[in-house]
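Sequence in, structure out. Go.
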Amino acid sequence: MSLRPAFRPCAIVPVYNHGSTALAVVRGLAERSLPAILVDDGSGSETKAALRLVLEAVPGTRLLTLPENRGKGGAVIRGFALAKEAGYTHALQVDADGQHDLGEIPRFLAAAAAEPEAVVAGAPVYDASAPRSRMAGRKITNFWVAVETLSRDIPDAMIGFRVYPVELALRVASRAHISERMGFDIDIIVRIHWSGASVRFLPVRVAYPEGGTSNFRMLEDNVLISLLHARLFFGMLLRSPLLVARRLARARRAAGQGEGHWADQREKGGGYWQLRLMLALRRFLGRGPLTAIMRPVVFFFYLFSRSARASSRAFLSRAAEAAGRPAPRGRDSLLHFMSFAEALVDKIDAWSSEIGVDDLRFRDDGVGPLVSDLRSGKGALLLCSHLGNTELLRALANLEVGERLDGLSFTSIIEIASTARFNRLIAEVDPRAAGMLVAASDMGPDTMIMLKGRVDAGGLVAIAGDRVAAGNRGRVVEVEFLGREACLPLGPFVLADLLEAPVYFVSALRESDLNWKAHYEFRVTRATSPIGGEGGGRGARAARVAALAAEYASDLGRLAAEHPYQWYNFFDFWNRGK
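Output:
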């Protein structure tokens, strides 16, 4: 027998000098069998008279009159309290000015009834009547809400068309000083998100009726909303470890697995919006505060991801065995994760050009042949990995060894669904790098021809050779890695054979000087395994691919054993790519 109370909704309509439109709104609610609670927020005498007529025209309507204007938020919160006293479980907040499409009410109530513990909010669809100034303000607010929630879970934070569970709304409002003015809709939805409650968004048409009354004060309310965002931002900084940990737990529950394939787990911080957010934080806060944020975030990742901890310990043990070091202690896994936190910040510095050629050191024995090939007009394929900082590879396009290699193109093949947004973001940060990314999923004949053309023209193409994509788990090549059998993806090594260009194994490994500024050393090794050629058919190609993969695994294993904390494959690498 369920103890959940029956779904009993009402509508809360804050009113401040909306006497001309309130009757139409309340009648629209009544037509959909939704009783209304009108909250008169200190309106003038004309509106008070109009509201009395509303009570006569629509029986069952309740009116709460506030002695003075408290603001939209103050009116809605008092409406929640009255709704609870009247026994309502849910409240639809709707504006009194006629902007909202009341025809959407049945759809919103049905969604709220199906998931009674969630807030169901409108995702506005505007028509041509929407003022441009208001639209610009919404975009700014939605950007900051993405920062404040560390997510894109809230596509619009300003619309006042929402169904709230009354208990949830009152609980959140009682725990914080919720803005009572125009910032209310932003403030409460962010704090509900922080609480861990679900928020569902449904599209809803929004119009600005001609002659409608708006109480938005352009200067005063924009200043108050800006101050609100500042307050929420610092609130996010305090909560950031918990917010990230909660998202990781939610992602694991959604995936329905614990120790699955790395591609199922989604590498944390690797998405487009996470990258854009971290770039913004780096720009506005600087490296130190961003590092201060990332360390507790990664620490919570360490605490809540049992499979990642186990994978870290397994790798560190095998790396220590291969290097002849003592077995790792318990704290070594935590140091491994903290190195990952530093690497995340370094990646952002690389994207934002805070780490450049001047912060790189090159091994003469490795980089010399590469520079020689490039100066002679030959391109090359760079086989990289998730050891060290792969984001610095594009700095090779700005190599200066004796003379700068101007005009050198760099193309990176990465494991994401679509590169369009990433390429736009890269172009914003560094216009010279526009179009540098290619999605591995796009590797068809046309893409191969394009890559071949870039390499033949003297460019560099980079691809990681140490992770098997989720859709290619059967296309692997078996190698020995740190004394155990492991699987590598077949594609990068077949690509090397098809491009028939010099192949280099490349890693950028972190060093730290006394000033705590990141410096990286490029470890570059020219592959000696034969590649290319048509002789011998498929069997010959398979043998060449296997030999190149074995050489790559040997070089990678040697470096990983030397620099174990910079190995950022937090999954079971020896799970045969399955």
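Check: Residues 218-255 form the longest helix (38 residues). The mean pLDDT is 79.
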